[in-house]
Amino acid sequence: MAESAVYDIVILGAGSGGYAAALRGAQLGLQVALVEADKVGGTCLHRGCIPTKAMLRSAEVADQVRESAKYGVHSALGGIDLGAVNTFKQGVVDRLYKGLQGLVHGRGVRLVQGRGEVVSPTQVQVGDEVLEGRNLVLATGSQARSLPGVVIGGRIMTSDQALALDWLPQAPIILGGGVIGLEFASLWASFGAKPTIVEALDHLAPNEDLAISKLLERAFRRRGIGQKLGVKVSEVWQNNREATVRLENGETLSGDALLVAVGRGPNTAGAGFERIGLAMDRGFVPTDPELRTNLPGVWAVGDIVPGLQLAHRGFAHGIATAERIAWLTPPPLAESGIPRVTYCEPEIASVGLTEAAAKAEHGPDAIETVEYNLAGNGKSQVLGAQGFVKLVRLAGGPVLGVHMIGARIGELVGEAQLIVNWEAYPEDVAELVHAHPTQDEAIGEAFLALAGKPLHAHA
Q1: Residue 15's closest CA among 51, 39, 32, 31?
Q2: CB neighbours of 201 closer than 8 A, spacing ≥ 6?
Q3: What angle do CA 288, 290, 293 make, to 5 degrees?
Q4: Sheet order of strands, 196-199 included
Q5: What are phi and psi of 321, to 5 degrees?
Q6: Of 46, 203, 403, 436, which residue is the catalytic one?
Q7: Which are the contacts of 162, defined by CB distance < 8 A and separation ≥ 6?
Q8: Which of these, 297, 329, 437, 444, has the minimum number of CB atoms within 10 Å of its CB?
């Protein structure tokens, strides 16, 4: 068994958190080994964020063609060429992958290809080689969950298989009304399908502000997307033509595809974590606020750490961990300050506390809210966007949450996260000039209203 030089950091997993730690560590002059069984970039680049957004772009184009006549442009949608959609999608992924490989190589990170297993708090074994590190960073990511008794295969699939389809479902059933389920329902509807979402909780997008969920449900109904809310699945089966779901209320649904979109779980099994005495919780790796595990010199980042499972959270984790290893002192990451975007149509973007969470934390009489409807926003009218910007404020204090829904609204979340994370007061933001006509103006208008001086909104 071969042993290599001692590295400052050995990183297990080259997804968002792992490669961010590697790049930042190398930038700080650390010797870094990055272990990956598949491809650098992980789920986000190859089977998640990027390929789904590429397909959603194709879906947006299809909708624009259908609606072009109202803009004075006469065209007809001749159909969806899924092969060409997949070629476009893969082209985006390949270009980003090539660039990422160049970054890893250019920073002097040693990329070790193969399945790694932790054999001690300072060692990772890959094949016959043992990599020694003064610090280990665990970044093994997440994998699609299923439901008890539901076997993935045939017409029953997770997002991994759905992204690789070479045929278009016409009547898919989607189990789960969270981010993954909403995005696939949206893109398949744009491609001409009639999806039905089954969600055990009472609303779609159950982690969002209730006002967002309600508007989304209305928008999806107008798009022909069926919804079965507040009901659980009791049984699933399939044949070579269709998959069938029996709900606990006795109703049955059948479709030509069944997407299981009930979240993602930590990808930690078989990596040797328990063997070295690492504290675990249902497969997750608990850490302190600075991402240290219970073992000295062993850190965990990204989806294996309990909390939001988002690529940009993984990036932030990886960067901060490398900096701490290099004796810098970045502040701990506040989960509530991480922006969240769901890329369905209409898009959802939010950061901070929902109205319900704010009232639970501070009391119902201590919270003020305002909604600014996009009907008063000129650029949204041009785009045909419907929705609103909702602000949640501590009475007499800072803004606690910003919640938005509407076409392309995700592009506004950058300003929203600055407002929430800097604990800005509405009066401060209201003084800032927002360019006209932009959708970003809607944030400015919402803050004018919350500051008590609405312009393009009723008082």
Answers
A1: 39
A2: 177, 229, 230
A3: 45
A4: 156-157, 258-260, 173-175, 196-199, 226-229
A5: -65, -45
A6: 436
A7: 184, 257, 259
A8: 329
Q: Which of these, 62, 65, 83, 85, lies nearest to 74 by C-alpha position?
A: 65
DSSP 8-state symbol, 432? S
Sign of CA dihedral 293, 33, 324, 340: negative
3-class DSSP assignment, residue 13:
coil
Mean pLDDT along residues 50-61: 98
Degrees to nearest 5, angle at CA 89 with 239 and 12: 85
> Which residues are 173's β-sheet partners?
196, 258
pLDDT at 37 over 80: yes
Tell me the residue type at 167: W
Neighbours of 24 (CB within 10 A): 23
Q: How far apart are CA 30 and CA 8, in angstroms?
A: 6
**Helices 441-450, 413-421: inter-axial angle, 10-degree rounding:** 40
Tens-place pLDDT, residues 333-360? 999 999 999 999 999 999 999 999 999 9
Contact 229, 239 (CB under 8 A): no
Cα 16 vs. chain centroid, distance in angstroms?
Answer: 12
Task: Answer for the pair 19, 70: CB distance below 8 angstroms, yes or no.
Answer: no
- Residue 2: per-residue pLDDT: 56
Residue 362 appears among annotated catalytic residues: no
Distance CA 83, CA 196 (A): 24
Provide the β-strand partners of residue 127: none
* pTM given for the model: 0.96
CB 442 within 8 A of CB 412: yes
CA distance 352 to 417: 8
Question: Coil, helix or strand for 391?
Answer: strand
Euclidean distance between CA atoms 115 and 36, whole angstroms: 6
- For the record, the structure tokens of 250 come out as 């006795």
